[in-house]
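Appendix B, Record 12. Input sequence as logged:
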Amino acid sequence: MNETLFKDQPDLSEEEREARAAARTATNIGAAAGLAGAGAVTVAAGASGAAIMSTLAGIGGVVGGGAIAGTAIVAAAPVAAAAAIGYGIYKLFGGGKE
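Logged structural output:
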């Protein structure tokens, strides 16, 4: 994401370059927070295999699925967190005005 959406380019305005730099930092922080949160949610009920599967099935049940759907949601959480935080910081710092 950082090398695609928020890539630094010397021909951009200083404001855009600063917004992209802030977004790159924010996506890294967001990914780390999302990863930690996904891990914490998965093992919150306990570290046994049955407890983890039950938690994943509960998460997947929110979207009408089971443990596999829950696994997909938990796996996508860090990416979604990084994207949301990075984009928010990008816009906050004035990105996208060009």
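The chain has three helices and no strands.
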